[in-house]
Amino acid sequence: MKLKVIPFLLAGSVLLTACQQNANNITSPTIQKEDAVAVVNGQYISKFALETLTEEVSERARGQKIPTEKLIDELVRRKLLVQQAESKHLDQTPETQERLAMMKNALLSQLAIEDYMKANPVTDSELKAEYDKQIAAVAGTEYKASHILVPEESEAVLIIAELDKGADFAELAKTKSTGPSKTQGGDLGWFAAKQMVPEFSAAVVALENGKYTETPVKTQFGWHVILREDSREQTPPPFEAVKAQLEPLVQRQKMTAYLDSLLKDAKVEILISDEQPEPVAVIETVTEEATPTTDTVTDTVEEITPTSDTVTETVDEVEAVPTAE
Questions:
Q1: Poorest-confidence range of 64-68, 90-94, 174-178, 310-314?
Q2: For the domain with range 140-233, which CATH number is right: 3.30.710.10, 3.10.50.40, 2.130.10.10, 3.20.20.70?
Q3: CA–CA distance from 40 to each of 16, 45, 53 (Å)?
Q4: Which of 19, 183, 267, 281 could form a disulfide with 23 if both were Cys (CB 3.0 to 4.6 A apart)?
């Protein structure tokens, strides 16, 4: 396996490591020979640095086994670059000191989060409470419907007239609809009423199964002819099936509450002006099919603990990740 390292692209925690050594005149701990894996121009690289790098690479290498000598080579290359930077006093410039201080603050912020979550882990009762809240939010009826979307009301009126004469809804959707579901005969699948725009949802709820709208329905996307095919009561997944997915969400909620409490008790003064930037025109791209507006218990949620950026490598190359030396 070929190892290609681009240390200049290292970001995130590699800079946090640097700030441990440089920011605010903090000196790195003395490394003894018996605690080192290599020595570079008289400076030791610690076993801890190798252990940390090994752990982080294994998490990001998608199961690839990285030889230890490759990882040590990566640490040696970094050490050489650090020595070069220090020989040119790059670590002493005001800009560098400011950046290192910011990285130190970011590291300490992350450590504060980890410390709080360790002392205040998510409990089963908190997970169950969140589960019950989300179940209550999504409980109700699901609908299966198809539609034909056209830009003009007059076109929708003509389509309804064809349906009244016995035309096949799916075939009309394939030939006349302008929406992306036309290739599926207008089929929108199963959805809850709140997942669609209000006008569309109201029309679907008012219909009986097997019936289509007798007048066109206008939404922001155009004019719809809607066929309600079926309906059913939603069956939520069991608590144990989604418990693991809910944990990161509850962790974020606990952290938000903790930060809010810190802010409430803090004395904060904003020292910059409140001038607003010039408004920028934003063009939103909307699709015909609406998407859910609230998280459900089956959503995949992100992890609470932030991770650092690493050097971008090809599949056959090691992701160089930061570590303390």
A1: 310-314
A2: 3.10.50.40
A3: 21, 8, 18
A4: 19
